[in-house]
Each structure stands twice: as C-alpha cells, then as structure tokens.
Specification:
Residues 4-178, 278-343 form the FAD-binding domain. This is NAD(P)-binding protein. Keywords: FAD, Flavoprotein, Oxidoreductase. It comes from Kribbella qitaiheensis. GO terms for molecular function: FAD binding; oxidoreductase activity. The chain is an alpha/beta fold. It has a domain at 180-267: D-Amino Acid Oxidase, Chain A, domain 2 (2-Layer Sandwich), CATH 3.30.9. 36% of the residues lie in helices and 28% in strands. It contains 11 helices and 19 strands. It has helices spanning 11-22, 47-55, 61-64, 97-105, 165-170, 235-243, 251-256, 288-291, 300-317, 321-350, 355-385, and strands at 2-7, 25-31, 42-45, 66-67, 72-74, 80-82, 93-96, 112-116, 118-125, 130-137, 143-153, 155-158, 178-189, 198-201, 205-211, 217-224, 264-270, 279-280, 283-285. The strands form 4 sheets. Strands 6-5-14-15-16-13-17 form a 7-stranded mixed β-sheet, sandwiched between helices. A 6-stranded mixed β-sheet has the order 8-2-1-12-19-18. Helix 1 (11-22) runs parallel beside helix 9, helix 2 packs across helix 9 (300-317) and helix 9 runs antiparallel to helix 10. The radius of gyration is 22 Å and the shape is globular. It starts with a strand and ends with a helix. The mean pLDDT is 93. The structure holds flavin-adenine dinucleotide. Residues 7-13, 30-33, 43-44, 119-120, 159-161, 165, 184, 186, 220, 266, 287-289, 295, 298-302, 304 line the site of flavin-adenine dinucleotide (FAD).
C-alpha cells in the first residue's frame, strides 16, 4: 500500500486523510494538539466544498447545517446599504466548526492512524521518500521529550496551517503571513432573534451574524487594531461589547447573550505573497499552509476541503505521483491565489475608517446591490417564461 503522512489535523488535514484513504493510501496524521477536534464558532460551507464532502461520503451535513439566507448589508444604525438581495446566487450553509470536523473524522477508516501530541519540526526528502521528524508535546505546546520520532512515507501532505513548519522548510526565503490591520472576534449567542442576519459595516468595524440549525446565533466582528494588542480589563467580551454597544439591534443583545468565556479572538493574517508551487518533490501544501486568506469571503476552510478533493482526484487519475501533484498545483494555485486577493480587497473596503470614503463605499455598494437585484429579478422572470 502507498504511504502518506498528513501534517495537521485541522479541517484540511482530516479531509485529506479521508480522501487519501479512499484512494488506497495508508495514512498517518500527525497533530500537535493533544486531542483531535476543533474549537471555534460557526463556519460557512459553500456548495463546492459541500460537494467534495458529499463525494467522500461525509454524511449528514445538510442535517446539521442551517441553510444560508440571502443576507443584506446594513450601516451601524441599522439602515440598509443593500437589502437582503435575493440574487439567485449560490449560498453557503452554516454549521458549528466542531460539528463539521467531527462529521469528517467520522469518515476516517482503518487505514488512517492518528497521532496527536506530536509537533512536526523537520521534513527532508529524497527521490524515493520523505522523512518527517516530530517531537512529543503536551497540550500547552511545551515539549515533553527530547526524543524525536521519525516517520517515513512516499507522500507528505502539509496541512499545518498558516504558520506551517513544512512550508518554512520548503520555502526558506518566503515572506510568511502578513497582518491585515484588524482583529476578528467570534462567538455563539444563546438567544433567539427574528432577524435573519447579514453584515453591518461601520467605521473600521464590522459585525455579521447567522443562525445555526439549533437556533443559536453565530456572530463575528472585526475591529482595526495593532497585532497582538492585549484585551482591556473587561476581557475580550468587554472589548467587543463596548465596541458595538451603540450598533443596531439585535447586535448588543447577541453580545449580551454570549457567554463571556466563549468569545474567541484572532488577529487576521494572510499569505499576501503567492507561494511558488504548492508542491516540492513528494511534499504538497494544502489549506492555510498553502494559501491562508482573510476570512472575509468565508472560504478558507472550504478551499482546504476543495484542495483535498482535487488532490485525491489527481492521485486517482494517474499512478505517476509527480504528474498528479503538478496537476493539483495547476488546478488549485490559480483559484486560491485569486481568493486570497479578493478576500483581502473586501477586508480593506470593510475596514475603511475615513468618513468620506465610507460614504462613497456605501453609496456604490447600494447602487451595485440595486442593479444586481434588478438583474436577478429579470433572470427569474425569464426563467419562469421558459
Ligand atoms: C475569524 C475567522 C472566521 C473564519 N470563517 C470561515 C468560514 O466561515 N468558512 C471558511 O471556509 N473558512 C473560514 N475561516 C478560515 C478557516 O478557519 C481556515 O481557512 C481553516 O481552518 C484552515 O484549515 P487548515 O486545516 O488548512 O488549517 P488549520 O485549521 O490551521 O489546521 C492546522 C492544524 O495543524 C496543526 N499543526 C500546526 N503546526 C503543526 C506542527 N508543526 N506539527 C503538527 N501539527 C501542527 C494545528 O494544531 C492544526 O490542528 C475563518 C477564519 C477565521 C480566523
């Protein structure tokens, strides 16, 4: 049996493990966290990624995910910039991140071995194989051993996230992650609201929310801030509550209905400099390790899932590893490079903090929304005549 090592058991890594196993590979997954799983709040899953998961037999997504609403965009006082435009475009479903991870790992079979508590520190390769070195760590990331373990395989899939050690080994001069200028808060509110959700853009701040299938509300918020700035005396919950206190309903109520200890915060980085090939010999980069993007399009994890689907498709199509990996790179690099750029551009627009530029932005977006809505109506009328 052909052997593969997947570094990292995030959404990208576990999807890759499922996909590789289904192509007949024996897979070892090395994950530095002590336990398999995801923390986090909600996540949007777009049809492309949902299709890959369905193809892998990951069952039940539709049962545990809430259908997306065609959400609009508001100003901080609640006035609509673009009112819930039903454009007939594709929409994502919303699911809790931990549930998505669990649905995927449920599909892992006997040819996959998971090793948690192993931090990969080094990757070397020759024409025939790749050697991965790892060291045991405890949950805080502290090394508990100086005893390195070596793992050998024919293929290594690096799904070790935006600060990928494997990418560092392959591309030593690479610029690395770049700070976007803003931070993101996330949480799940345990309150009910009749509001269908959507995004609200203010001055250097944004807030968005959507319903999960159990009625709870997943929300996210952004604020311009220096990287690494510590939370205020009220903690993350205090910071985000203060920042959005005078925003329209139900935003303050959603924050009040969120357990303070459950608020998450991440400074937002991306891989602004596109990587040279995602592939080097027998090592392939996937997900955030290859193309971390800002979360403005809600596509990072979806792209990781689609990467895994593409990798498996090309490995299945040819027995020649090098050809399969080149085809993977040719398919996934252009698409994801565009997403990284688009996502960054949306973030820049959303985080504007000049009053004049914001007025222009909201005016242009309002007009664009109206035009798109008219086009959507016309399209639907034409379709109903056929
Ligand atoms: C605020 C926010 C909201 C988002 N919303 C969405 C959304 O709605 N939809 C969407 O599609 N995406 C979203 N994303 C993006 C998404 O979270 C990421 O793109 C996705 O998690 C990337 O998955 P991954 O498996 O590539 O990497 P990661 O999730 O980062 O997983 C990497 C794994 O590798 C492990 N690891 C790291 N280094 C090592 C090592 N040296 N040795 C062993 N293991 C290692 C880590 O512990 C981790 O488990 C959002 C991101 C943010 C910050």
């Amino acid at each position: 049996m052909k052997t593969a090592i997947v570094v990292g058991a995030g959404i990208g890594g576990v999807t890759a493990a499922v996909a590789l196993e289904q192509c007949g590979w024996q897979v070892t997954v090395l994950e530095r966290a002590a336990e398999l799983g995801e923390i986090g709040a909600g996540i949007s899953v777009w049809p492309g990624a949902a299709g890959v998961l369905e193809g892998l037999g990951v069952a039940g997504l539709q049962k545990v995910a809430a259908a997306g609403d065609p959400a609009g965009m508001r100003r901080s006082d609640g006035r609509w910039v673009v009112e819930a435009p039903d454009l007939g475009l594709e929409l994502p479903v919303m699911i809790h991140r931990a549930q998505l991870h669990e649905l995927i790992t449920d599909k892992l079979g006997p040819a996959v071995t998971i090793r948690t508590g192993i931090t990969v520190t080094e990757v070397t390769q020759n024409a025939a194989r790749v050697v991965v070195r790892g060291v045991a760590v405890e949950s805080g990331g502290v090394s508990v051993s100086t005893q390195y373990e070596e793992f050998t395989a024919e293929l290594v899939v690096a799904a070790d996230g935006i600060r990928s050690v494997v990418r560092g080994a392959l591309h030593q001069g690479y610029a690395g992650p770049r700070y976007s200028g803003y931070t993101a808060y996330r949480g799940i509110a345990e309150v009910e609201t009749g509001d269908g959700g959507g995004e609200t853009w203010g001055r250097g701040q944004r807030f968005g929310f959507a319903k999960l299938i159990d009625g709870r509300i997943y929300w996210y918020a952004t604020a311009n801030r220096p990287a690494g700035a510590p939370a205020g005396p009220g903690g993350l919950h205090g910071d985000v509550t203060a920042a959005f206190a005078d925003w329209h309903d139900p935003i303050p109520a959603l924050l009040a209905g969120t357990p303070p200890e459950a608020v998450l915060q991440n400074d937002i980085y991306d891989l602004a400099t596109p990587l040279p090939p995602f592939v080097e010999g027998r090592v392939v980069l996937l997900g955030d390790a290859a193309h971390a993007m800002t979360p403005n399009l809600g596509r990072g994890a979806c792209s990781a899932i689609e990467d895994a689907g593409a990798l498996a498709k090309h490995l299945r199509a040819t027995p020649d590893l090098s050809t399969a990996l080149s085809r993977y790179d040719a398919e996934r690099r252009p698409v994801t490079t565009k997403l990284v750029k688009r996502s960054r551009a949306v973030g820049r627009l959303g985080q504007l903090d000049s009053g004049i530029l914001i007025a222009v932005r909201d005016g242009v977006l309002g007009l664009a929304g109206e035009a798109a809505s008219l086009r959507g109506k016309r399209r639907r009328m034409e379709q109903s005549r056929v």
